[in-house]
Each structure stands twice: as C-alpha cells, then as structure tokens.
Fold each of these.
Amino acid sequence: MIPLQRWTGIALLIYLLLHIRTIHTLSEGPQAFDRALAVFRHPLFKLGEVALLATVIAHAANGLTLTLFDLGYGHRARRRIRMVAAVAGGALFLAGGVPLFLGGVMGR
C-alpha cells in the first residue's frame, strides 16, 4: 500500500502539471486563457480546489511529522504528535475549505 505522503505528492504533481498547462495558454493569446479560466469556474473544479486544499494540508502535516521523527523528536509521543497534526490540519481545512465551498460551489 502506498503511504499518504506519496499519494498526496502524486496528486500535487498532477495539479502542478495542470497549472503549468493553464499558464501556458497565455502564450496562445488572451482569448485562449479566458476560455481556460471559464472551465475552472465550473462547480466541479471548485470542489477540486477544496480537494486540493485538503491534499496540501495532508501533505504538509504528514511531512512535518515525518521530519520530526527523522530528526529524532517525538518517538515516544508519536501518536500524540500525529493527533495534533490531524487536529491542526482539520482546523486549517475547515477555515479554508468552508469559504471555498460556500463561495465556489454553493455560490454564496
């Protein structure tokens, strides 16, 4: 089974490639760029932004905990550190995800 860090890394790489492709449409003229941006205004893409936020937070929180463990900190409190990272990540996701969802998907 592939660990969370690898899955989120692959998802972020796919997002990065899509982002680069979208920015590349600037070289094709303003109309092409406007067409690309119009696609991203669709509610499905807004849900994708919420998923991207969750992916970035999960990747960052897991990366920080792995770095702490690699540096020798927290081996005895591994479960507690992971719980703190999960709660902090969840709070951060709610702080950013709820406005993204309400504004982009629900149109409020």
Amino acid sequence: MRAFAIAALLALASCGSSEKTEAPAAKPSPAGPRLGDVALDAPLRATDNALTWSLELAPGSITLTRFAGRGTEGSVTQFYPVSPQADGKKAVWTTKDVAGEPVTITFTGARCIEGGDPAIERPLTADIRIGDKQLHGCAGERPADGLNSQPPVAPGNVAADSAADEATNAH
C-alpha cells in the first residue's frame, strides 16, 4: 500500500502542465539602515558650530578635515571605512585611524542647530571620539553641491521668504 502511494505521488509529480507559470514579481530591495529620515548608506556630513572641522562619511570612506585657524594648522585624517551599527535611536561607527587610534562616531536622532547667521538645523547630533579627544556637532545628509548649505526652505517660512525678497530687491 505504501509503495502504491509513493508511486502515485511520483506519477503526479512527473505530470507536466501546458500552463505557463509567471516568474515571481521582483520585490523591492530592502531599505538600508536609517536614523529617522536620514539614510545611513548615503553620503553624510557632520560639522561643529564654529566650522573648525568637518566629518564626511560615504560608502567606502570616512574623512575628518580640521580647518586651519585660531593658531592651528589644517589637516585631513582618513579612518578605516566601516558600516554603522544602528538601533533606530542612534548609529555608531567603530573604527580607527591609520595610526591605530580608536575612533567612535555616534549620530543620534536628535535635531541639532548649527549656530551662525543664519542658523542651520540638522536632523542629527554628532559625537566623535578619537582616542581621548572628543568632538561635538550636528550631522545630516551631505548636500549634493558638496557645500555646507541650508536645506531647501519650506513654503510659508516668512523669515526666509522676506530675506529672499530683500536679496532680490537689492539687485
């Protein structure tokens, strides 16, 4: 009896069908890691309020630039590229510089305001620890133009609209 059941199953399995089967629909690839509205696999930038340093994170590279001024010389430091460990509230890159100094870069999902005129709001807060030194600043997606520009102004922003009107009328 058992042999008969197995033979019947094998016979059914070998039966072909003239119906075409459709290929399964392609599923969209899963989104990469995010921290709030910020994609962590896109180019990112962190800076301090005084613009004494800038940290650029992009797939395959992490670069810290310290700008010259106030008695210091400018420098560029490369860190070994790593992917962040993200938990929805913060993202942490644990790496080191080429001299072997430990580096921890932490972005948290707290809005941050860069001082200046005009002040620039960024979606993330940045803390960078290089050995025993610590840097604090604001972070977000790196602007497409590469400059430290303000994100586009939302319609209805009276202060920004009047400033734009004044600039237009000045010409």
Amino acid sequence: MKVLSKLARACAILAGLLLVCITALTVTSVIGRSVFGSAINGDFELAAFSAGAAVALFMPWCQLRRGNIIVDFFTVKASPRSRDAMDRAGALLLGLVLAFMTWRTMLGGLNAWNTGSGSMMLGFPEWLVYLLMVPALALTTLIALVQGLAGFGGSDGAAERPQPAKDTA
C-alpha cells in the first residue's frame, strides 16, 4: 500500500498544481478583460479541461484516505465488524465501477487521438486530458480493490472511518 500511497499523493500534488495554474490563467484573463478589454482566448476551455483532469487526479488520494461519502444512517448501530464488511464490499463495488470507467475513458482517449479531436476555440487536443485521467482512474481502481480485499488497515496513513457520536443523554 505504500507505493499506492505515494502514487496517490503524487496525483493529488499534480492536481493541485493544475488547479493553481488554471486559477492563475483565469485571474489573468479576468484582469485582462476588465483592465484591457481583452481576455485570454479559450480560457474557459482550458479551465474545463483542467478541472476534469484535476477531479480524476484527486480521486486516488480521496479513496486512499477514505474521503468518499459514507452513508452510515442505517449502519450506525451495526457492529464495527459489520461496518467493516460493508465498507470493504463498498470498496470492491467502487473498484469494479472505476475499472469500467477506466476502460471507457481509455477508449474515449484513443478515439480522441485517432480522430484528432480538439477544443473548439483553441483546437487543444482532447486526448491530453484523457492521458491525465486514465492513470488516475486506474490507480483509484487499484486502491479500491486492495482496500476491498485486504481491508483498510496498514501503514499508508489512511484516515480511519469516522465513528458515530456516542449518545450521552
């Protein structure tokens, strides 16, 4: 899990850098529009592509840290063992769904490459976004499957599942 943790951390750092760059681009474009009457051409396209890639790049870290939404309304009174079993089953299910998403995203990227698909304003090649998304989705898949099969313990620094508050009344 240590290797997966390092890869997830690298993806999250890359996503953060991507968001910082697109924020700087957006601020520059807004200032240019307000002060000089001229914006950066295609800034919204680059922002959309970057946001999509950043979401995918943040997913491995989120899964590693167990940051996905857990609906525990129905399991609050279940034993820790039952909750762990359900969490592991959920991680396995998520891993299977993400495996499908990875496969389909990869096919979309290959299609974008083969057709030379690009954005409308800049002609920015769409396959570059897929190039960032596919490895991140594959890593998230792997992390979810390992968590589902081996559990959530270990030395990866992953956060523990929050426990329900004790009723003190």
Amino acid sequence: MENLIAPKNLKIGIFRCLKAGTNPEFPEQGTCQGGVVSPLLANIALNGIESIHRHHKDDCGITKKTKEKDIIYPSIRYADDMVIFLRPQDKAEEILEQINEFLAKRGMKISEKKTKVTRTTDGFDFLGWNFKVKSNGKYHCVPSEENFKKFREKVKSIVNCSNYGAKEKAEKLAPIVRGWRNYHKFCDMSGTKFSLWFMSHRAFKVFNKEKKQTRYSTLELIKKAFPTVPYSLAGYVKVKGNKSPFDGDVCYWSERNSKMYDGEKARLLKKQNHTCVHCGMKFMNDEHVHLHHIDGNHNNWKKVNLVVIHESCHDYIHMGNRVIP
C-alpha cells in the first residue's frame, strides 16, 4: 500500500477490499470475472514478483554498486498472468520455487495446470496473442488460434442469425470487428485470415440475398460491418517507470492519452500541444476529445476550421448558441 499512488479515499477502499477476505459459508464468491476490481487487486497483491528473476546487462551478477539502469527484469505480467524469459544458464525449477515462496506469504500458489516451460522458437500464447522468435532471431506476434476461433464464432452467429436483417447485422458486427482489430493492432495482421476476407465474403452472400439489398448497398453494409483499423507490429509504448494517473504529471498523461486517437483528432492534438483551445487545460483520460467547427458549419471540414476541445467545453459552446423561445 505504501507504493500505491492514489487519492486517500481510493487507498482506503482498496485496503478494505484486500482485508475483506471471503465468507466461510460462501467460499466460491469473490470479485466478478472480467471486472475492473479483480486485476487491480491482483496487481497490488503481486507487486514485486517481477523482481524475483533479474540479471545484469553484462551477466556479471548484481552487486551493491550495480546501478538500477543496468538491471534487467526479463518478465511481463498483466494482473495474475505472467511470462518469464529465461537464459540458457537459468534454472526454471529454482525460479519457480522462489515464486512459490513469494506467493505463499500472500496465501496463494502457482497453478500447475496453467504453468509450463517452452521455447520461444516454438511459440506460446499469452493474453490472446501468439508470440514466437523466428530462426533469424526476429520477434513475431499474431492473434492466437484460440482467440481467432472465438472471434470467428461470434461473427458467424450474427451473420447466420435469421432474427436480424442485413442492416441490424452490420450494426452488431461493427463494434465486435472494430474491437477485435483494435485489440490486435500491435500484432502482425498481414496474414490472409486476419484480413477477414472469407468472413466478409460470406456475410456479403447472406446480406445480398435480401430483396431490398442491391450489390452496391450490400458492399456499403460490408464496409460498415468490417471497419478497418491500422496496425503496427510492436508499436505499443510502455508507461515510463512508476508513472500513475494520480501522480500529477499532467503533461505526460495528456500526451500519452492523445495517442489513442487517430486521423484528424491526432493531427490537431499534436498541433495544439495536447491542450484545449477553449479552456487552455490539458486533455486527461477522464474526458473525451471532441472535434469542433469554429464557424459552426458542420459541412466545412477545412483544416483551418477544425480544433479539438473537451467534451464539456463543446457542450458549453453549443449551449450558448441555443435560442430559447
């Protein structure tokens, strides 16, 4: 709790959750699967487990004089899911024993069914991605087979559902496809199956069977149902050091959060130095960024007529332009 950077009230709530324990009469109850509280509590409880396996850049061992920048922590953790990268001279059994000792102090233990040792050249799945090191030493990452199979089943169930028309199916498919592609936008999506051509072709045949649809209207629905998202292999930028949204570094977080946007918003955010032109304050992660037309004409999309402002500022501007009878 001492290393947690958060407001006092939030710290008290998290401390109470960690101390709450479970009811002996209902031991199966706890935080809901997929909720936001479960990974937060896991990150707090497992804080420091990454430092169990570490080594020096020059493989000379870690001494008191070793600087922090010279120490490498070859592990990745997301909530309670963790991957540890070992060197040929490292002993997996010893590292697992140290992790068991770390978890035992917190009343936990390693799941033997989910823990395995594998070669990076053979590849492994982690958080819906498949990671692999090629024979030439280059890193490669694509969506895992299991993740792609589940996604394909979701799309198939909507396309083949007879309760919806083509327009309703396109509306339901769009957020699913966009969400899947956004999640994997830092993978190599150049593969044929990841282009979703076969899925979109199947959907085109089903949509085109409706009497109201023509070839051109069906193509428009397919574009709407399967929106494209740009991707870049390993393009994600990690959060620096021990940064927290509650640490008060407004400049860092406003600039980082602005990278979530693309197109015209991304260009204007960079041009405006991640600052709202209406109130002059930085953009934070708790409010959406809106495009605003300076002359009020929403058909005028010239670059000089566009700025980005806070959602609340946008509402305030248009509120002042309303005519009250």
